[in-house]
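Every protein is a chain of amino acids, and every chain bends into a shape of its own. The fold becomes a row of whole numbers, each drawn from a learned catalogue of backbone shapes. The protein below has been through that process, and both of its lines are reproduced in full.
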Amino acid sequence: MCGIFACVFCSTDSSRKEMINVLLTGLHRLEYRGYDSAGIAVDGAGPDDPIVIKEVGTIAKLENRVKEVESSDNRMKEDVHLKHSVGIAHTRWATHGPPSRENSHPHTSGPEDNFLVVHNGIITNNAVLRDMLAGYGVKFKSQTDSETVAKLIQFLYDQMIQSVPDLSFPRLVMEVLRQLEGAYAFVFRSRMYPNELIACRLGSPLVVGTKDYRGTERDVFKVNKISQYSHSSNREPAAPITPQLNLVLDKEEPCTRPDGGFRGEYLFSSDAGAIAERTDKVFYMEDNDVVHVKNGNLEVFNFHAALDDHVLSDNRIISTLPFELETIMRGSFDHYMQKEIYEQPESLTSTMRGRIKKDESTGRYEIHLGGVKNRLRDILSSSRIIFVACGSSYHACLAARQVVEELTDVPVSVELASDFNDRKCPLFRSDTCVFVSQSGETKDTLESLSYARGVDAVTVGVVNVVGSEISRQTSCGIHLNAGSEIGVASTKAYTSQIVALVMFALQLSHDRNSKDARRQEILAALHEMPCQIESSIKRIDEVTRRLAKSLEQSTSILLSGRGFQFATCLEGALKIKEVSYTHTEGIHSGELKHGPLALIDDNMPVIFFAASDNTKGHIQSALEQVLARQTSGTFVIVCPEDDPDMLKYRGNKCEIVEVPKTADCLQSIISILPMQLLSYHLAVYRGHNVDQPRHLAKSVTV
């Protein structure tokens, strides 16, 4: 949700046009996160003359708007080259006020654009601050909480500059942050501080990329601690803002280089994938970090560091991005979603690589999850295991729950993170909480993690993004290694999550002799699964393409299954809703007679999921009940190949979608493929934006 991108050219003499191209390319890489408007701010004739361009709709519309401004604004008719230049950009997903140019970012402090800000997150005390500023005569043009921050920084600057004539940009921004409550990632630029940029975060992701044209990259940036910091919280509506004038920045001397200083780029983004095109050297900002760039020097402050010991590191370490540029390109595919569905043989192989090994001499398989090895004893001694997740990640937890219980003999529950937070579910130190999130930044899941850490429960993270907040805050974890997923509707990350959770169960039961035969069955099936998917996916694609054409005019669809396939029903229904905008319900087959059977008629398409497990008889009974109430219409069964009990239903009244057969606890991974492809083709036939469904965002951070 929303996306920040910013660039600082240092000693490069780059043109304004080059800066605009960098910003727009960065925004294109962030489109998948979901947005409804976008904007950029670049230097005009100089760093004290910013130009702000905003537009409602797509990045393509913003590009057209840029061309209009270039032809109409005298400041942009002639390109300029500057030694240092700063550009900021943003894609907005509406939370406060509808999509409009006024509500789009960057937001300004006033008509002279003294301060400009882009923001992800929500300021929870926005109403109080807005009322206070209005009492001082401040006028607002938008409905957003982000504009409140832009007005607040101007207000504080006017107050503080009289008492602190050498007021620095980071000192000013920290005073702004002291007044705020909520979650945020900000990037600020200012006419009052030309060639400077400030980035800061609390609960919303922000990554910093460095590109040294001379090839002498730094490996680490030391965190400078802030003394005498006190947060201004629980402000009364009428209470005045009083700056903390005694705040001291205990910082190092700025780094200097014998070769004359840094020459290159600093890049800031909500997602590392947007930076990958320009550099693979990044570090991940942590909560309460404030990054300051000035004349080629970059410094990191943390204003929480002096208050307690909850600082994850004294340094910000430069790491190398683990993916190549081509992994975030569509290649020969029409859409990212289609590409990512077809990538699942490779993504599943990557998830298992180095973790499942076969001893060729004995034929036995072994599992090794290094990320949880040191906490196995604590997890196994837990009184229960609680999975906490949202959306597709929640469905992945449901798909794996039964096998985790079976192999560990530990009670397992699965919680929606938002409901878990609402209820404040009782937690104890004897519990293990597993937090599953593709992005590792999901707001509700992070809130649940904070709650679990507060009671000293063992916390395990299962994420796809290295360096994400969940991966850094949990006691141990598993990285999916599924590769970048650009499409909003999760496909390959979902199947990798199930595999990761099954491997988690296998690791927990590694010394259980009574479970050995079952473990070997599952491990062998995992080993074969990528090949099974690769050999069958094109055939399944053709079947679902025809099925999608027959369902193109349908307004509702019912999916039903039970056991391991119940999660497949829920996830399949979610996929169809997400991208084709068709009302779809996933129903447990055991619940059909408790209400949903009343929906069955000749106009209601029904899809059943069958498997060769102990639920097969129940599924047959349920589908017979539905067939008895349909004389025509669409009826589909998704089942393992060559299952005579299901193939007997094939005929004019029933469509059979056969998928490769695997271990019962893994069948949901393969059975979801037809639903991923069906939802994709339905969306294409209906002319929808497959990769960016309306109103949705890839990373739910607000």
Remarks:
- The first helix runs from residue 16 to 30.
- The CA atoms of residues 292 and 299 lie 5 Å apart.
- Confidence is low (pLDDT under 50) at residues 251-260, 305-311.
